[in-house]
Amino acid sequence: MKKYLFPVILLLLGVKASGQQDFFALTGKDTPSIIFNDFRALDVINGTSGETVLTADSMAKVFSQSRNGSVTEDKNSYNHAQSATMAALAYDPSANNLIYMPMFSSNVYVLNNKTKEITLVENNVTRVTACDMNSHITRMATGYDGNVYAINNAGTQFLQITRTGNQYSVHDLGIINDDISNGKNSFTTIETGFGGDMIADADGNFYVFSTSGNVFKILKKELKARFVGKITGLPENYSVNGSAVNSKGKVVIASAKGAPLYEVDMQTLTADKIPGDLNLHIYDLASKYFVNDKSVSSNVLTRVDIYPTKVNEHFITIDINDQKIKENIILNVFDMSGKNVMKQNISAKGGTLNQKIFLNNLVDGAYIVNLTEDSGKILLNKKIIVTK
Q1: Residue 326: its pLDDT value, please?
Q2: CB 216, CB 230: distance < 8 Å
Q3: Measured between alpha carbons, how far is 217 from 209 in angstroms, rounded to an integer?
Q4: By the 8 A CB rule, do 104 and 53 touch?
Q5: Which pLDDT score is estimated for 388?
């Protein structure tokens, strides 16, 4: 067994190092005030941090789209690519770009995730005043049509940012008003509707998760905000500041207060804490996924996974949804010397399984978890780190 184990380990390590990054966070410093720290990738299945894309102290190269050349920005103003006050981020996977806006500025910035170069998109469409919190852009997401959308606090500007080739343009779609059914849960007041973040669905609509935990469905064609409900299962005084859809079609939310990440079921609006001890101050989240996306659902039907990879609560979850799996499954755990330290038979009736496997007898260290059918077909090898 040892003969074959170490190539598997090397393969897993290589996959981890070069894995696709499609979930990003705009993080802040550990202070009560909003102070930008960095843009970084996240592993939201395991609650761990990934590669840093740009920091507040990075040497930024900024190219002005309108002036068709490099520019030097005033770092003492609100109008620069590393402004301290930022809370709006989107990801455009077609160009591998992060799109963001400082809260107190009308500027749009496009950060290439590979080259780290930044394009400044100046525009006269966005109406932002530093001292008017109603006008601050705090919610942003990529729509199902590939355009980026942003909404200010009071809903008085619903922006569409489009790309043609390498050129970006900004359009104002109008004012978003409360649906008549909202009652006291207004989208346009500070206590119930301001701040937070937004996500998109596959039907061309959006959902805003306000700081208070209220969820509003934004009907794009009608320019209406309809109150859906309030998230349950969060700690008291949890501030919802970031939201994005994960590969399972659920929404991940984050807080600027340095709290854990939570996964929200859009059908019930119930929140479950994501494993891991990632307590970043997150002002905004962005991903390439959408709610009600049939293409994501079809991918989920062939899912075989193990999580978390960093185990600090004595168990892992085996998650299987693959109709091709008809046999019983054998779970083996090997230490890094190749020794089999745990074996267990599990059953995925109908090709589905979501089962916790307890690892109480394993000491701290790295292990390979192997899932195999009775026929000997390997379904998955995955490295985990046990820390108790």
Answers
A1: 72
A2: no
A3: 9
A4: no
A5: 66
